[in-house]
């Protein structure tokens, strides 16, 4: 093409018909306003013919060919095709963009090979049409409309998202981009430093959080008995009970007004330690006891104790009713550090995803412990690295298992059921989701600029509301009616009654054994006393007989009898003294 001046154009317009072949060698293209004005003045000259304007456009089968974009009359008149006309805000057409439509026609229906994997709620397969749908698909369609390209979807053969091996080769979606097998990955990939070394991420279109989901521990009502007050409060109440019991016993036992009452110790009352103890315990249970304080000091002490018991009972009862009415979750741990510190729960994450890359390459101590724990659990249970999130949720519902994943999927998994809970403070890694292109792609800025425009227009939020399932609140969170308490809920109360019966039976057995032992001891004591009285009678008879022996007329027989009687008497006396001692 030759650049023409105004004089050259004048020569063309004044040429004779014999020079028409020369005229056909030129296509008039004017950049300046002066040329446009000049051409418009001669647009009605009837002696010139229309010539097609062609440019290279992408067609089917991934090839380019010449296509008509308009026609120009040899006198300077121009006809623009309807689907190739580009208008500015004032309604005038831009000739430079018309002659070179690739400037604004994007990729001119070039077919891109796009790799994708389903991941709810970003990408999922429609049950009826068996086609992909979701927010990411809406974004892909909008980009194809704005950038004027078509696409063909395919999935990685291994069905993985992409993790790096020892030789720096990636599998899954990232591996396809690294090997340049596809032009674009539209799956919800998370931006990561390691992935950035082999692919180019566009502007992120969504920010996601991560979390840890576990099955709610079953909390029975028996475990809620100690919840209304702190354990320290229970300890202080127990110490107060011991101190008040001892003080009440001292005040009643050493009361000067009742000290000289005859037979006072045989009468039951608060001056006995056991009676004082049971009265103080009864006051805690708002019941009291059979006996009352006789001294002014004891009455004053019990008045303060009753006031203390009333306040504690009212506080405990109110808090206990509130706990039974409102469900309060008590989770076994609060964050990732608490997860690795306990020994009850196992944990895992979706294999070949961003979480495996994060945990494997992180230098933070708690994340290293998480990954080491996963490797240890994987030896006996390979499903802890299952890439299927549904399998991970099934393991969570099985109990004593924690799954690390993105928050939106965890909330969807909970749904209307109330059997699982997400650790709210476990957002240990923010997730930025964006499409990915091959490394050093020339299309990076083109896609990023369009994504920024889409975000600013609010389309992402609209697609999120359109395609994402509505977040269902747990049914227990919305229940306002009273709950029916069954036997299992209050089995601890029946257990207390059973323990009371068992303890009472043991006390009854103890009292019967003690009574029989006391009766036996009393009988033995009476028998000993009876025997001692008989021995005393025998000794007195021997003494009297000994005194009747006349010591004057001594004979050998009398001396032998006297010695025998003396030895026997001394022996009986010693035995009686030993018994008395």
Poorly predicted sequence stretches spanning 5 or more consecutive residues? 16-36, 42-48, 82-94
Structural class: alpha+beta
Q: Within the CATH hierarchy, at the fold level, what is the topology of the largest domain?
A: D-Maltodextrin-Binding Protein, domain 2
- CATH superfamily assignment of the largest domain? Periplasmic binding protein-like II
Assess the beta-strand content as a share of residues: 5-15%
CATH architecture heading of the largest domain: 3-Layer(aba) Sandwich
The CATH class of the largest domain: Alpha Beta
Specify the helix fraction band.
40-55%
Organism: Mytilus edulis (Blue mussel)
GO biological process, one term: detection of stimulus involved in sensory perception
Keywords: Cell membrane, Disulfide bond, Glycoprotein, Ion channel, Ion transport, Ligand-gated ion channel, Membrane, Receptor, Transmembrane, Transmembrane helix, Transport
GO molecular function: ligand-gated monoatomic ion channel activity; signaling receptor activity
